[in-house]
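In response to reviewer comment 3 from the previous cycle, which asked for concrete evidence that the modeling workflow produces usable outputs, we include below a single protein chain processed end to end. The sequence was submitted unchanged, and the resulting C-alpha coordinates are shown without manual editing.
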Amino acid sequence: MKTLPGIGLSNVQQVYGGAEGDLWELIMGQQIHIGGFASSMDLAEKAGLREGLRGVDLCCCNGAGMRFLIRFRKAAHMAGVDATPAMLDRARARCAAEGMADRTTFVEADVCATGLPDGSMDFVWGEDAWCYVADKPALIREAARLVKPGGAVVFTDWVEGPGGLSEEEAARFMGFMKFPTFASPGDYRRLLEGAGLIIERADDTGRYAPCLDLYLRMLTEQLTSDALRIIGYDMELMQALGGEMAFIQQLAHARKVVQGLFVARRPS
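The workflow returned the following C-alpha coordinates.
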Protein backbone atom coordinates (compact mmCIF):
# COMPACT_ATOMS: atom_id res chain seq x y z
CA MET A 1 0.00 0.00 0.00
CA LYS A 2 1.36 3.39 -0.99
CA THR A 3 1.53 6.17 1.61
CA LEU A 4 1.95 9.93 1.18
CA PRO A 5 3.10 11.69 4.37
CA GLY A 6 1.56 15.03 5.18
CA ILE A 7 -1.91 14.26 3.83
CA GLY A 8 -4.70 13.67 6.33
CA LEU A 9 -8.36 14.09 7.16
CA SER A 10 -8.11 17.88 7.40
CA ASN A 11 -7.00 18.03 3.75
CA VAL A 12 -9.98 15.96 2.67
CA GLN A 13 -12.35 18.13 4.72
CA GLN A 14 -10.91 21.22 3.05
CA VAL A 15 -11.53 19.75 -0.41
CA TYR A 16 -15.12 18.65 0.17
CA GLY A 17 -16.01 21.64 2.31
CA GLY A 18 -14.98 24.09 -0.39
CA ALA A 19 -14.78 24.91 -4.08
CA GLU A 20 -12.86 21.78 -5.09
CA GLY A 21 -15.69 19.56 -3.86
CA ASP A 22 -18.18 21.67 -5.82
CA LEU A 23 -16.00 21.27 -8.90
CA TRP A 24 -16.00 17.47 -8.60
CA GLU A 25 -19.79 17.52 -8.30
CA LEU A 26 -20.08 19.72 -11.36
CA ILE A 27 -18.05 17.27 -13.45
CA MET A 28 -19.35 13.99 -12.00
CA GLY A 29 -22.84 14.89 -10.77
CA GLN A 30 -24.23 14.32 -7.27
CA GLN A 31 -22.98 10.74 -7.46
CA ILE A 32 -19.33 11.72 -7.15
CA HIS A 33 -17.88 8.41 -8.24
CA ILE A 34 -16.77 6.68 -11.42
CA GLY A 35 -19.73 5.48 -13.47
CA GLY A 36 -22.51 7.22 -11.53
CA PHE A 37 -25.85 5.42 -11.58
CA ALA A 38 -24.64 2.47 -13.65
CA SER A 39 -21.81 1.82 -11.20
CA SER A 40 -24.16 1.99 -8.20
CA MET A 41 -26.63 -0.41 -9.79
CA ASP A 42 -23.86 -2.81 -10.79
CA LEU A 43 -22.47 -2.83 -7.24
CA ALA A 44 -25.91 -3.37 -5.68
CA GLU A 45 -26.74 -6.19 -8.11
CA LYS A 46 -23.45 -8.00 -7.55
CA ALA A 47 -23.90 -7.68 -3.79
CA GLY A 48 -27.45 -9.09 -4.04
CA LEU A 49 -28.99 -6.19 -2.11
CA ARG A 50 -32.69 -6.89 -1.76
CA GLU A 51 -35.62 -4.84 -0.52
CA GLY A 52 -36.01 -3.96 3.16
CA LEU A 53 -32.35 -3.96 4.24
CA ARG A 54 -30.64 -1.53 6.61
CA GLY A 55 -27.25 -0.22 5.56
CA VAL A 56 -24.56 2.30 6.35
CA ASP A 57 -22.63 4.36 3.81
CA LEU A 58 -19.11 5.02 5.10
CA CYS A 59 -17.84 8.32 3.67
CA CYS A 60 -21.38 9.18 2.55
CA CYS A 61 -20.45 12.63 1.17
CA ASN A 62 -23.67 14.37 0.00
CA GLY A 63 -25.82 11.27 0.59
CA ALA A 64 -26.31 10.40 -3.09
CA GLY A 65 -25.53 6.73 -2.50
CA MET A 66 -28.03 6.58 0.34
CA ARG A 67 -30.74 8.13 -1.80
CA PHE A 68 -29.97 5.70 -4.62
CA LEU A 69 -30.28 2.70 -2.29
CA ILE A 70 -33.57 3.88 -0.79
CA ARG A 71 -35.14 4.78 -4.12
CA PHE A 72 -33.87 2.04 -6.41
CA ARG A 73 -33.03 -0.85 -4.04
CA LYS A 74 -35.83 -0.18 -1.54
CA ALA A 75 -33.51 -0.04 1.46
CA ALA A 76 -35.55 0.34 4.65
CA HIS A 77 -33.07 2.71 6.27
CA MET A 78 -29.65 4.16 5.52
CA ALA A 79 -27.15 5.66 7.93
CA GLY A 80 -24.45 7.93 6.57
CA VAL A 81 -21.11 8.56 8.22
CA ASP A 82 -18.80 11.38 7.14
CA ALA A 83 -16.30 13.70 8.78
CA THR A 84 -17.00 16.83 6.69
CA PRO A 85 -19.78 18.95 8.22
CA ALA A 86 -20.54 20.81 4.98
CA MET A 87 -21.18 17.53 3.17
CA LEU A 88 -23.43 16.25 5.95
CA ASP A 89 -25.45 19.48 5.87
CA ARG A 90 -25.88 19.05 2.12
CA ALA A 91 -26.79 15.37 2.55
CA ARG A 92 -29.46 16.09 5.17
CA ALA A 93 -31.00 18.83 3.04
CA ARG A 94 -31.10 16.72 -0.10
CA CYS A 95 -32.52 13.68 1.66
CA ALA A 96 -35.21 15.86 3.23
CA ALA A 97 -36.01 17.45 -0.14
CA GLU A 98 -36.53 13.99 -1.64
CA GLY A 99 -38.79 12.87 1.20
CA MET A 100 -36.24 10.56 2.81
CA ALA A 101 -35.59 12.30 6.13
CA ASP A 102 -37.40 9.56 8.08
CA ARG A 103 -35.34 6.80 6.43
CA THR A 104 -31.91 8.37 6.85
CA THR A 105 -29.67 9.23 9.79
CA PHE A 106 -26.27 10.89 9.75
CA VAL A 107 -23.24 10.60 11.98
CA GLU A 108 -20.37 13.10 11.94
CA ALA A 109 -17.41 10.88 12.75
CA ASP A 110 -14.22 9.28 11.56
CA VAL A 111 -15.37 6.26 9.55
CA CYS A 112 -12.79 4.15 11.39
CA ALA A 113 -14.67 4.75 14.66
CA THR A 114 -18.34 5.41 13.91
CA GLY A 115 -19.76 4.68 17.36
CA LEU A 116 -22.58 2.67 15.77
CA PRO A 117 -23.56 -0.65 17.44
CA ASP A 118 -21.88 -3.96 16.61
CA GLY A 119 -23.67 -6.05 13.98
CA SER A 120 -26.34 -3.41 13.43
CA MET A 121 -26.28 -3.33 9.61
CA ASP A 122 -27.32 -5.71 6.86
CA PHE A 123 -24.66 -4.17 4.65
CA VAL A 124 -21.87 -1.62 4.62
CA TRP A 125 -21.59 0.50 1.46
CA GLY A 126 -18.90 2.70 -0.06
CA GLU A 127 -18.37 4.26 -3.47
CA ASP A 128 -14.96 5.54 -4.57
CA ALA A 129 -14.36 7.22 -1.21
CA TRP A 130 -12.27 4.91 0.94
CA CYS A 131 -9.18 6.06 -0.97
CA TYR A 132 -9.43 9.18 1.22
CA VAL A 133 -9.12 7.18 4.45
CA ALA A 134 -5.60 6.98 5.88
CA ASP A 135 -6.01 3.95 8.14
CA LYS A 136 -7.52 1.40 5.78
CA PRO A 137 -6.96 -1.56 8.15
CA ALA A 138 -9.02 0.24 10.82
CA LEU A 139 -11.69 1.13 8.23
CA ILE A 140 -12.11 -2.48 7.12
CA ARG A 141 -12.20 -3.68 10.74
CA GLU A 142 -14.94 -1.14 11.46
CA ALA A 143 -16.93 -2.25 8.41
CA ALA A 144 -16.65 -5.87 9.52
CA ARG A 145 -17.74 -4.92 13.04
CA LEU A 146 -20.84 -3.11 11.84
CA VAL A 147 -22.22 -5.81 9.55
CA LYS A 148 -24.44 -8.63 10.80
CA PRO A 149 -23.56 -12.31 10.36
CA GLY A 150 -24.39 -13.09 6.75
CA GLY A 151 -24.26 -9.40 5.86
CA ALA A 152 -22.04 -7.85 3.22
CA VAL A 153 -19.33 -5.21 2.94
CA VAL A 154 -19.66 -3.83 -0.59
CA PHE A 155 -17.71 -1.00 -2.14
CA THR A 156 -15.97 0.43 -5.15
CA ASP A 157 -12.74 2.37 -4.85
CA TRP A 158 -9.91 3.85 -6.85
CA VAL A 159 -7.06 1.34 -6.57
CA GLU A 160 -3.64 0.78 -8.05
CA GLY A 161 -3.98 -1.16 -11.29
CA PRO A 162 -1.82 -3.85 -12.86
CA GLY A 163 0.30 -1.22 -14.62
CA GLY A 164 1.67 -0.11 -11.25
CA LEU A 165 2.53 3.41 -10.10
CA SER A 166 6.10 4.59 -9.77
CA GLU A 167 6.91 6.45 -6.57
CA GLU A 168 6.98 9.72 -8.49
CA GLU A 169 3.63 9.05 -10.16
CA ALA A 170 2.07 8.02 -6.87
CA ALA A 171 3.29 11.16 -5.10
CA ARG A 172 1.89 13.45 -7.81
CA PHE A 173 -1.40 11.59 -8.13
CA MET A 174 -2.01 11.16 -4.39
CA GLY A 175 -0.96 14.73 -3.64
CA PHE A 176 -3.42 16.17 -6.15
CA MET A 177 -6.24 13.87 -5.05
CA LYS A 178 -5.48 14.21 -1.31
CA PHE A 179 -5.16 10.44 -0.83
CA PRO A 180 -3.10 9.70 2.31
CA THR A 181 -2.82 6.02 1.39
CA PHE A 182 -3.58 4.18 -1.84
CA ALA A 183 -4.42 0.47 -1.92
CA SER A 184 -4.10 -2.24 -4.53
CA PRO A 185 -6.75 -4.95 -4.97
CA GLY A 186 -4.36 -7.30 -3.17
CA ASP A 187 -4.18 -4.91 -0.21
CA TYR A 188 -7.96 -4.87 0.10
CA ARG A 189 -8.15 -8.64 -0.24
CA ARG A 190 -5.72 -9.09 2.63
CA LEU A 191 -7.54 -6.58 4.81
CA LEU A 192 -10.97 -8.09 4.15
CA GLU A 193 -9.80 -11.62 4.83
CA GLY A 194 -7.87 -10.44 7.90
CA ALA A 195 -11.12 -8.97 9.27
CA GLY A 196 -12.79 -12.39 8.98
CA LEU A 197 -14.78 -11.66 5.82
CA ILE A 198 -15.23 -14.03 2.89
CA ILE A 199 -14.48 -12.36 -0.45
CA GLU A 200 -17.08 -12.98 -3.15
CA ARG A 201 -15.86 -10.47 -5.76
CA ALA A 202 -12.75 -8.38 -6.32
CA ASP A 203 -13.03 -7.01 -9.87
CA ASP A 204 -11.70 -4.28 -12.09
CA THR A 205 -14.87 -2.61 -13.41
CA GLY A 206 -13.20 -1.35 -16.59
CA ARG A 207 -14.99 1.98 -16.17
CA TYR A 208 -12.12 4.14 -14.98
CA ALA A 209 -10.41 5.22 -18.20
CA PRO A 210 -13.61 5.84 -20.22
CA CYS A 211 -15.02 7.97 -17.42
CA LEU A 212 -11.81 9.99 -17.10
CA ASP A 213 -12.05 10.71 -20.84
CA LEU A 214 -15.63 11.90 -20.34
CA TYR A 215 -14.81 14.13 -17.37
CA LEU A 216 -11.91 15.80 -19.12
CA ARG A 217 -14.01 16.46 -22.21
CA MET A 218 -16.80 17.91 -20.09
CA LEU A 219 -14.34 20.16 -18.26
CA THR A 220 -12.67 21.43 -21.42
CA GLU A 221 -15.54 21.43 -23.94
CA GLN A 222 -18.83 22.00 -22.11
CA LEU A 223 -18.46 23.06 -18.49
CA THR A 224 -15.47 25.42 -18.68
CA SER A 225 -17.42 28.54 -17.75
CA ASP A 226 -19.21 26.78 -14.88
CA ALA A 227 -15.91 25.45 -13.55
CA LEU A 228 -14.31 28.88 -13.78
CA ARG A 229 -17.19 30.40 -11.82
CA ILE A 230 -16.66 27.88 -9.00
CA ILE A 231 -12.93 28.71 -8.74
CA GLY A 232 -13.37 32.46 -9.00
CA TYR A 233 -12.49 32.73 -12.71
CA ASP A 234 -8.86 31.88 -11.98
CA MET A 235 -7.56 30.88 -15.42
CA GLU A 236 -4.14 29.86 -14.09
CA LEU A 237 -5.74 27.50 -11.57
CA MET A 238 -8.03 26.15 -14.29
CA GLN A 239 -5.06 25.29 -16.48
CA ALA A 240 -3.30 23.61 -13.55
CA LEU A 241 -6.39 21.53 -12.74
CA GLY A 242 -6.72 20.53 -16.37
CA GLY A 243 -3.09 19.45 -16.43
CA GLU A 244 -3.52 17.22 -13.38
CA MET A 245 -6.69 15.70 -14.82
CA ALA A 246 -4.81 14.95 -18.05
CA PHE A 247 -2.08 13.27 -15.99
CA ILE A 248 -4.65 11.06 -14.25
CA GLN A 249 -6.13 10.26 -17.66
CA GLN A 250 -2.71 8.98 -18.74
CA LEU A 251 -2.49 6.81 -15.62
CA ALA A 252 -5.96 5.47 -16.36
CA HIS A 253 -5.13 4.41 -19.91
CA ALA A 254 -1.92 2.75 -18.71
CA ARG A 255 -4.08 0.86 -16.19
CA LYS A 256 -1.98 2.24 -13.36
CA VAL A 257 -5.18 3.38 -11.63
CA VAL A 258 -8.49 1.50 -11.96
CA GLN A 259 -11.85 1.28 -10.23
CA GLY A 260 -12.06 -1.85 -8.10
CA LEU A 261 -15.32 -3.49 -7.03
CA PHE A 262 -15.40 -5.59 -3.86
CA VAL A 263 -18.06 -7.75 -2.24
CA ALA A 264 -17.20 -9.57 1.00
CA ARG A 265 -19.49 -11.28 3.46
CA ARG A 266 -19.38 -11.92 7.18
CA PRO A 267 -19.86 -15.66 7.84
CA SER A 268 -23.29 -16.56 9.20
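The chain has a mean pLDDT of 96. We consider this sufficient to address the reviewer's concern, and the full set will be provided in the supplementary archive.
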